[in-house]
Amino acid sequence: MSQRPIVPVILSGGSGQRLWPLSRQHYPKQFLQMVSGESLLQDTARRFKGDRFGPPLVVCNDAHRFIIAEQLREIGVTPRAIVLEPAGRNTAPAAALAALILERDGPDRVMLVTPSDHRVREPKRLNAAVVIAAKAAAGGRLVTFGVAPDRPATGFGYIKRGEALDELDGCFAVAHFGEKPDAAAAARYLKSGDFLWNSGIFVFTAGRYLEVLEALRPDIVAACRKAIADGRDDLDFFRPDEAAFKACESDSIDYAVMEHTDAGAVVPVDVGWDDLGSWTALWRIADKDAQGNVTVGDVVVDDVRNSYLRSDGPLVAAIGLDDVLVIATDDAVLVVSRDSVERVRALVERMKADGRTEYLSRPRVYRPWGWYQTLDVGDRFRVKHLMVKADGRLSLQAHKHRAEHWVVVSGMARVMRGDEVITLGENESIYLAAGVKHRLENTTEEPLRVIEVQSGDYLGEDDIVRFDDQYGRG
User: Fold this and answer.
1) Where are the alpha helices (DSSP H) in 247-329?
2) H/E element, 132
3) Helix, strand, or coil here: 181?
4) Which residues in the chain show pLDDT less than 50?
5) What's the rounded Cα separation, in Å, for the pair 81 and 231?
6) In 3D, which of 241, 173, 254 has the Cα closest to residue 213?
7) For the structural domain made of 364-468, what CATH number should be given?
8) Is 7-274 a CATH 3.20.20.80 domain?
9) Residue 3: what pLDDT?
10) Nearest C-alpha neighbor of 149 from the set 273, 63, 37
11) Which residues pair with residue 451 across a beta bridge?
C-alpha cells in the first residue's frame, strides 16, 4: 500500500432547495453554520486534516468559487486545487475530473470522495475507518462506508453487506447496492439487520476508479478526459473545458459504478453521520426542550410541541402548534408541517417557474471582495451596505445609468475616481457620477463598511463595465 497521504476530494455542489429559505442556489447549505460555529464545508475540510491526508481537492460550482476559497482560507486550509464545473453533472463525472488530475501522481493515488454538507459527530472514528478502506482500495476495491440504520428512512440509499473480505478486518463485500426504497422496503431492510445506509463517501485509487468507470461508462471518462486536457488555469482555480464537460451525461457514482461493479466493498461505521437533507433532519439531531422543540435565534413559544423554529432575522412568536417548522430569514418565512418537508423542493421549483428570485440568494450577496446587502429599494434609488474585507477591492468600473454616493461607516477607504485617488475615513463620503471610472479598496487589515446610495433610471446589477479586476471577472 502506498504511504503517500490520502487526498480528500470534496464535492461542493447543491441547488440550495431542501433547506430553503436558509439555503439558496447561490449560497447552499454547505456554506452555512448548521451544527457548529463553522460551515459544513469547513467542518468537512477539518475532518480530513492530519498526517494521513494531503491538501484537499475541491470540485465545485463556478459561482461558488470565491466563497469556497475564502472559507478554506479562514480555517488555514490551502487546497491542492479548486476545480470549477461548467455545469452540474452529478458525482460520477465530478469524481472523474478529480481522478484524472490525481492520476498524474500515479494511478495508485488514493482519493477519498466526500460530500461537503454532511454531519459527522465522531470524525476520529471515521478516519480510522478510512485507513481500513485505503488498504482495500490499494487492492483494487471501490469502498464506501455504511451506516447502521436506526429508522426506516426512505431518503437514503441502502447497502446489503456481504461476506467479510480476507485480510481486511472490518471490510465486507457488497451483496446489493440500491437506491432510496419505499417505506415498506425500508422497514424490511431495518428489520433484517443486513442493510446499511449508504453514506455517499467513497475511497478508491484514481487509476482503479477510472478503469472501472471506463468499462461501465466510457462516454463519461472520454468527456472528462477532454475537459481536463482542454481546460485552463484561472487564478487559483482550474476550469475544465466547458463544451467538453457539458457534453458529459449526468450520473452518480452509485448508479454509474457501485450498482454494477463486483469490485465494491463497504466498511460499516458508527460515526454519528447524517446528510442533513431536510429541516426534519435538523430537528432530529438538535437538542430539544421539554416539549420537544428546537428554537434558534429570536424565538418565543407558548404551547408549542415537537417543532423547529428558527429566526435569522425578525422575532418569531408561535402559539399552539404541534409538529411544525417555522424558518424566518431577512426576506422570507417558511411554515411547514414536519411530515411535509419533502415538498419544500417542489415549492422552490414553483417559485422559480413563477419568476421569483428568492430561491437564488438572500439579501446579503457574497463577492470575492466581501459582501453587500440591499437595505432599501424604491423608485430610482437603492441603498446597500457594503463590507470590503481586509486587502479586498472592487473592480475598476463604471455605470451608464446610475450614480453612486459612498459613505464610510467604519474603516478606511481608498477610492479611485477618474484620475483622483482619495482616502476616506469614518463619516466621510464621496459622490460618483454616472459614467465615471471608480474603484473602492480596503488597504487595511480591518473590515471596511460603506453605505452605498444608488440613484438613476436603471439600477440593475448588469449595469457595470469592468476595466480591471483582480479576481478575473469580465
Assistant:
1) 253, 279-285
2) helix 123-138
3) coil
4) 1-2
5) 13
6) 254
7) 2.60.120.10
8) no
9) 73
10) 273
11) 385, 407
